[in-house]
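Sync notes, pocket subgroup
Present: LS, DG
LS reminded everyone that the earlier model was apo-only. Rerun requested with cobalamin included. Inputs:
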Amino acid sequence: MTEEKTVVLGVIGADVHAVGNRILAYALAQAGFKVANIGVLATREEFINAALETDAAAIWVSSLYGHGELDCRGLRDQAAEAGLERILMYVGGNLVVGKQDWAGVEKRFKDMGFDRVYPPGTMPGRAIADLMRDLGLVNEVD
Amino acid sequence: MTEEKTVVLGVIGADVHAVGNRILAYALAQAGFKVANIGVLATREEFINAALETDAAAIWVSSLYGHGELDCRGLRDQAAEAGLERILMYVGGNLVVGKQDWAGVEKRFKDMGFDRVYPPGTMPGRAIADLMRDLGLVNEVD
Amino acid sequence: MELKNQKWPADEFFSRRREVLAAWPTGREVDLDEAVAYHRRAGAGRSMAALLDQARTSGRTLAQPRAGVALLLDQIELLRYLAAEGEADCLPATIDSYTRQNRYAEAQAGIEESRAAGRSMLNGFPAVNYGVAACRRVVEAVDVPVQVRHGTPDARLLAEITLAGGFTSFEGGGISYNIPYAKDVPLEKSIADWQYVDRLAGWYLEHGVTINREFFGPLTGTLVPPGISHAVGVIEALLAAEQGVKNVTLGYGQCGNLIQDVAAMLTLPRLAEDYLERCGYRGVTVTTVLHQWMGGFPADESKAFGVIAWGAATAALAGADKVIVKTPHEAVGVPGKEANAAGIKATKQVLNMLRDQFMPPTPELTEEIAVIRAETTAIVDKTLDLGDGDVALGTVRAFKAGVIDVPFAPSRFNAGRLLPARDNRGAVRLLEPANLPFDRALLDFHRERLAERGRVENREPGFQMVIDDIYAIGKGMLVGRPR
Amino acid sequence: MELKNQKWPADEFFSRRREVLAAWPTGREVDLDEAVAYHRRAGAGRSMAALLDQARTSGRTLAQPRAGVALLLDQIELLRYLAAEGEADCLPATIDSYTRQNRYAEAQAGIEESRAAGRSMLNGFPAVNYGVAACRRVVEAVDVPVQVRHGTPDARLLAEITLAGGFTSFEGGGISYNIPYAKDVPLEKSIADWQYVDRLAGWYLEHGVTINREFFGPLTGTLVPPGISHAVGVIEALLAAEQGVKNVTLGYGQCGNLIQDVAAMLTLPRLAEDYLERCGYRGVTVTTVLHQWMGGFPADESKAFGVIAWGAATAALAGADKVIVKTPHEAVGVPGKEANAAGIKATKQVLNMLRDQFMPPTPELTEEIAVIRAETTAIVDKTLDLGDGDVALGTVRAFKAGVIDVPFAPSRFNAGRLLPARDNRGAVRLLEPANLPFDRALLDFHRERLAERGRVENREPGFQMVIDDIYAIGKGMLVGRPR
Ligand code: B12
Ligand code: B12
């Protein structure tokens, strides 16, 4: 059903939060995706290289530790430069430092070029459903 | 030192909170005052009669249960009618229903004619010090 | 009619009823047969007895807030919010203080002033003034059982209206809603008035509708030793059972020392069941409720959360069937709906985390259990003695003799000579046992425990210690140590 | 230099020091003799060791928050606020994640962006970039001891700067600040780098200044069974003691089951003392710290208060010397000062209320104690064996062999084969013990406990159970029951 689409998964920057990453990988695999999990402490370059290598349909960036705003800048441009103009990019976790107004946070990350931005505590199922929709793997009507 | 001044003490209205009343009575007595304690469920009339009977210097009204605003209205006028024009009147406790802006609450009770209004959790010592000052029992400078 | 512990004959009950219902216009709305039909239609989902039963068998602890405001629509919104956002397992209508003193005219004024001011000027919901139909709107607004919580020495009309109004549980008793809640009401009167309420509940039962009757365990909420509140609870259960009540919940106000509180919660249903059985009442279902700390709270909301959560933990570890929840606004005023929901949510988090945990038996717990059993038994037995076997009469005499004595109670029918204080571990003991009918061993136990604290604090146990203990939790402590 | 558990000779230490201090310009500011003089002037009021000692002897539990922001003045204001309004007993500077990875240039950019944005863009205080004088301003801003808390595999420069900067306690160790905090750092390297830190602390001690060394007990904070974290703590204590450290605090992350947690806190110092003694280290003072639940939190602030308060209760009943406090913002982001103070206040209310209470011994507790002792001993003894008596070498080999295996750790030097899950009462057990050196009795114990849960939930214990448990507390439960 997912035609074995690949998702690159990783935790960006100096971030070592490994638990959510482990669960996301499991959930994506259960949903039928191939997962290229580059794990924690992942650089922007590692995300892009993994996407190129696996011909990925999407990049899922996690940032839990608060520096997401600093770490994620430039990822979209670097991807474009590498020829990944149309790759889907999602980001989720605890993206900024502290408890901030979510609308503002979402906007900042959308402005950085992310297609979807998820607040703290998002359950994997929700984002996987979005992904299936964005990849045209499910009928929009149901 | 207090020249055995009398304070009328009671809990007004349909209010049965007895613990604070007991402690206030004890604290006033310890500070050298005579206490005419009319207890809980006290009517306005009982306050005034007790003040007349004991030639009291002050009336301390407690209201804990939230109906203070309804119960205290008219007390100052009734006292004046009874000839107690100059008697000191303090009120304290949990005077209104709910957590409200204190400045507003204080103003409402001052407008009703109370000389001093105390917020929830006031320790007796603070009000006794005020009373001694208001009665000229201590030198203003110290 | 002279007070005695005997099921009221139907004629007596129905002749009284006429007077009761005539006391306020809404009394006319009550039609018992129609009310029974209404309850039957409503079904088990609304039944507090059924919910408690389920909690008890599954080892779960239900969380219930207090909640009452002056205006009907606000009351409805409040309960809906506490169910949905607060995740309350069951709900109350907490009745205002004018209604509690049967001052319906003042309650009416309060309703009108509240409408004018746009905020509740009453500290609860004036159910009598609203009447039967309005009560049904409240009860129907939510999916969980709703109880009447109050503090009314004479709650006959309130019971008529709210039970006809679809409430399935009614709190209070002739002692617990008099001694802490009144100054001048003789026990003869309040006990008789509550016999009426119990008879009414019994009547519903006889017609297929189980009304849960809960007794107000915390009494004055302030350092009440478990033996005393247990004795009152047992007596109220006996009085209710005689009138035909078969579903009772006994309450206890958390004191703060875990071992004492667990012992109290473990002994409470056993003692009630023993006495019910001994006095010949069969088939009475007994459940328990723990009230989170009922005395003075810290004003700081974070600290209040600490007190609330510790109460929840105690309820869970002690296996209470229900816990009554405080709020972060406790020290200041009746909580708004958000603060109220906050208290329930903190409570439920702890209840759920501790759901599969319990306090294992230990020698300390066993000792505490023995003490509470001995105290309660001493008081109840002496009360029965004083009444020549009649618990109603005995209660009146026991209060007169100080055999039951509730600390800090406003009632002049309470001896008021007893003084409690915490021991060195925070358990509530007797500094001045006054006339409690305790044997030497019990008295020595209390004295020694307080002497131990005295040694640690290097002061003689005395009234200052009591005052320090009254303030202690509000100031962030359990034991009021000298500064 | 090859890794071994042996006190570094002075020349080795000082020649390494030159490299370390050269890594960033602020390294030049460190002058050890001047730093010692500074600490001596500062006196015991700033000493974490002295404060812990006092807590231990008086049976009190200290409350300490986490707290770190990008800008110096904000850091000072934050600590002042947490001392005054939050009533914290001791304070930290929590270091940002760039500094933890020795990425000082990125930390510098973070400081500048924070200045521009007017809010902290870093998740902690970049102490290395600020240097010695700035650290002293932080330490001097408050009256209580301040500790460095971080998660830095190579913390040599950080230790040099902060200890010269007047901090009197330094968290971390070669295992606990590597395995949960890094992906590619070999244990040979991190252990050696932490020998350096310990040697530095030892040097201070030899010059009359006691630096408290705390090890990071919670590891990944997520369902780590006590036997594993205890083994790591004991090993880190041995490694530190060899370098001359004489004041250590061992940590443990609350798991949530009271009996297991109390057993863990009771065994922790005993095990450390036993091994220190057995390995010939005399005169080492051991204290303990409990971390309130370190895994995923509920997003709702009231529920978070419930989790916090239960952690505080556990710390108090277990007699922890210190508790590390979470905040109501835990699930969302680094707390602002108000949320941080709120967590401390809720904690202190509970600590104070339970100050004179303890968990009495029971058969369940005794069993749990025996299990934790057996597990820890099995792991530490096997580690010593693997190193032919050298605990440093043994540790490297033990991780390679999976004899120590930390669940959910990001490090590729961790086997990562072990899977924990909660049993039917919420205690953390081993679903997949992988290569842990446990005897049959221990393995059976774990299997039986999980089988019991499986029967109750009517499912085979498996990875879904682990996932359910990871989410459970965040969803208001302890045990992740199937829906
Ligand atoms: C114990 C208690 C009870 C006991 C009282 C037993 C008894 N008969 O005494 C019981 C359980 C029976 C009870 C019942 C009710 N209570 Co009540 N109760 C409390 C509680 C928890 C503690 C009160 C107390 O004893 N404090 C300790 C003493 C020492 O302090 P104190 O009473 O505040 O008095 C001190 C100061 O306020 C000050 N002070 C008081 N008066 C004055 C006057 C002057 C002139 C001065 C200078 C100082 C001063 O000095 C006193 C001594 O230090 C408070 C909340 C709290 N404070 O934590 C609620 C509280 C007072 N109760 C409240 C309510 C609403 C009720 C009920 C209606 C039930 C309900 N809805 O929950 C009934 C009302 C009964 C009635 N008709 O009055 C509300 C009042 C709400 C409001 N104002 O908005 C409170 C604030 C709880 C809440 N947040 O909802 N209660
Ligand atoms: C466990 C934990 C740790 C462990 C991590 C162990 C490990 N190596 O994995 C330890 C103790 C080591 C740790 C360290 C630190 N942590 Co930490 N940690 C947590 C904690 C408590 C739980 C994280 C977790 O495992 N959750 C469970 C998993 C299943 O959920 P999750 O991680 O949120 O991931 C899920 C969703 O977010 C979502 N998701 C995640 N990414 C993505 C991406 C996409 C595309 C989508 C669709 C969904 C998605 O799906 C995941 C699966 O359900 C959180 C707070 C919390 N959530 O309660 C703090 C938290 C993440 N940590 C935080 C911080 C700051 C740190 C430290 C800097 C120390 C400090 N100051 O306290 C260090 C940083 C270390 C580093 N360099 O990264 C902060 C981040 C603050 C912020 N953003 O403002 C948090 C929020 C705590 C807080 N409020 O301060 N931490």
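DG: The radius of gyration of chain A is 14 Å.
LS: The domain at 2-87+95-134 of chain A is CATH 3.40.50.280 (Rossmann fold).
Action: DG to write up.
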